[in-house]
Amino acid sequence: MTAPVYKKKDFMSDQLVRWCPGCGDYSILSQVQTVLAGLGRPKEEFVVISGIGCSSRFPYYMNTYGFHTLHGRAPAFATGLKVTRPELSIWMVTGDGDALSIGGNHIIHLWRRNVDINVMLFNNRIYGLTKGQYSPTSEKGKKTKSSPMGSLEKPFNPLTLALGAGASYVARSVDVFTTHLRDQLQMADTHRGTSFLEIYQNCNIFNDGAFTSFTDRAVRDEKVLYLEPGKPLIWGPAEQRKGLVLKGLRLAVVDVGEDESEIIVHDPSNKALATWLAELDGSGEFPVPVGLFYKEDRPTYDGGFVEQIAEAKEKFGQGDLNRLINAGDTWEV
Amino acid sequence: MSDSTQTATNVVIRFAGDSGDGMQLVGGQFTRTTALLGNDLATLPDFPAEIRAPAGTREGVSGFQIHFADHDIFTPGDETDALVAMNAAALVTNLARLRPGGLVIVNSDGFGSGDLSKARLDHNPLEDDTLAGYRAVHAPITTLTRNAVEHLGLSTKEADRCKNFFALGMVYWIYGRPLKPTEDWLTAKFSKKPEILDANLSALRAGRNYSQTIELFQATYEVPKADFRKGRYRNITGNSALAIGLAAAAQKTGQTLFYGSYPITPASDILHALAPFKQYGVATFQAEDEIAAVCAAIGASYGGSIGVTGTSGPGVALKGEAIGLAVMAELPLVVICVQRGGPSTGLPTKTEQADLLQALYGRNGEAPCAVIAPRSPSDCFATAIEAVKFAVEGMLPVFIMSDGYIGNGAEPWPVPDVASLPDITPGFRTDPEGFLPYERDPETLSRPWAVPGTPGMEHRIGGLEKQDGTGNVSYDPLNHEHMCRVRAEKVQRLQRFIPPIEVHGDAEGTLVVGWGGTWGAIRSGVDVCRREGLKVGQIHLRHLNPLPADLGDILARYDRVLVPELNLGQLSKVLRDAYLVDAHSFCKIQGQPFLTREIADAIRQEATR
């Protein structure tokens, strides 16, 4: 069978997109529509599952199967669907509040089980749909309607949380890095297991400019480290290249000249390195890394789930209803 | 040697000991042997919530009651004819249930000063007149068991673990039961541990021989076979019957049955029973919490499987929002609630019927679900199949309201003919021509089940209000009212599956209306009163939403309506609301099932009101 050929518009639904003008979600939607159209899978095999929040309106705008579920619970719906319909390509959309606050218990179990779905977490570091309260990724001291004197809470780092919970694939991109985002979506799709992609997304109404300190075109080159497997961890404009080296057991920044030999080469199978990189937040001389932090090939939950059923059928034969109800100790009267 | 064998029509025995003494195990063995002998039976396990409460205390007492007879019986019995008490705490907490003149076998080794103080006793009940008026047998069961297994050189701890089988052997002899079924069971269970097998067999046989030899028992008892309808029987608990019923539904439809659950007493045994049914098309998922369990089940239903979740009252509270989503998304879902004492953590191992209103109303918004309730352990089988049929054909959530009493209780089940099971017809749609996600079947009002993977029918569903037909998000005020009414009417139209109500007893006088696991006690109480000449009818509601179409007419025929419930009057509220009937509640909320005499007393009182 030849792979179906689609255009982006085949993945656009007939519903009016109702995010605020200027929202970062528009760019993400556009990249996802483009990437899914190019994956060569029949359109009916895609399912977009979301929780609740601005980002979770996403399924309505995709001309695929879609399920807008409950606040924080999308991982559970996706798990139930994937283990019973493993042939489907499931894309989960969630936000920082949805995934890390009300749904915290579900996403950690999704990561450790390694269910084969793609997770896009739109992190805007604020509650948007409920109009502007601090979120579990808001910086400490954040002043919002619910924290007029500043939030007292240390934020979650979604990437280190994912690594700590045993996620097998951890990556990051940014709404406005359109090419990078498309590449990351494509790569996430190729991973068997829970592919976790954090996407920094600007909320221009309640938290505008949350990421401009490294996404603005003027500073992007100086502050963003594009992680590429097998390549040295180097960033910066051509004349002022910087790199990451190990000093003792800590990362340090050095100027990079002709000799790149001491610069750490990125290895996404190295969990310790992934954790160090995930801790970098652009403070001081350090960059903000984007791209693939970690990837581990290990059995998926849905794969094991299906195998156990097949194994039971092989061992005991296809179940027979008569045998089932007549099992155990029976007696005739 | 006993010189006489008496014939009894029915006998109630209670095994009571510390929760580490294996009373549930020997109770189960006695049940199995009795079932194989062809008696009708009903059982009541009664155990503490703690796995091992402090040994020897009153709180740690675990009991197992079995009622067996040569005729149809409906309850595990009000009073016990025989009590086996393995220690002081077990004796004092269970003696009140022993009928005057009843047999009590005490393990006299369980009455040392330590045992007495743990049972909060300042004197030894074996040394005063506590047991006057009963036929008491003082047997040093611990010592006798140690002697019986001495040849094996086991540790004292290992030897003492066999004392439950010694006690079982004693009781087997008194009631003329063969040892062979239990010997076979032990042989299979301990085939790889020959020493433990030998020890338990030795204890069992020594107990039997002890009973036979000591001449303390004036008589042994024979309970003849019950007069069962011809056919094949097996003994079954409510939780097992639910599991087998769900697997049967999977086989009937050819669809995967997905069971998402989080461990909770007293529903966990359903998960345990379903997990080894993979070859029958059953998939089980132990979720991270109650909410994930129901959400995963809905996710599976969305994909075309039969989504089922099982829990108890506290879990239903957590699942409420998700059940509302299944109402809104109009997807099949079966929610099993094995009720226990509440509120909050309440009485986890005790029975109650106080989740009826939660099932009917416990969600935000107008979120009607179908609600059905099995009346006995074996009835859980048919109830499970019916619930799946309602859910799949109605495209809506269905509650099964079991309870701890029928979930853990057991009775003989006439194994049904597979061909007699009802057909279940899922409304899958694969034709994209003119497809609308919320297009309704004019008769049932169900929407099509259009699952991901079907070409040309891509669509979106979710928890936001839907426009009828298209399923698009809609804030239109009139559409919302229309949809609320449609969702309620969809449940109401399940009446098409409900047969006419069967009335037991008289067509005039007092009508006793029950639901769920109280059926047996109510039936027994009604029959007692009818034998006394009172005019009493009984109906037992399996369908709580929708209610049967003929219920209003039947209620109107009687002078008085009595509604016994293990809550503070929930069904009576529903009946008063639906039919403006002057229904009187008879309530008990003690974590224990009704006794026959409590029902009979309530009927007598109602009849003379």
How would the global form of chain A be characterised?
globular
Give the number of helices of chain A.
11
Roughly what percent helix of chain A? 25-40%
Full CATH superfamily name of the largest domain in chain B: Pyruvate-ferredoxin oxidoreductase, PFOR, domain III
Uncertain stretches of chain A: none
Distance between the termini of chain A: 59 Å
Provide the CATH topology of the largest domain in chain B: Pyruvate-ferredoxin Oxidoreductase, domain 3
* Uncertain residue ranges of chain B: none
Spell out the CATH superfamily of the domain at 8-210 in chain A: Thiamin diphosphate (ThDP)-binding fold, Pyr/PP domains
CATH topology label of the domain at 8-210 in chain A: Rossmann fold
User: What is the correct CATH architecture of the largest domain in chain B?
Assistant: 3-Layer(aba) Sandwich
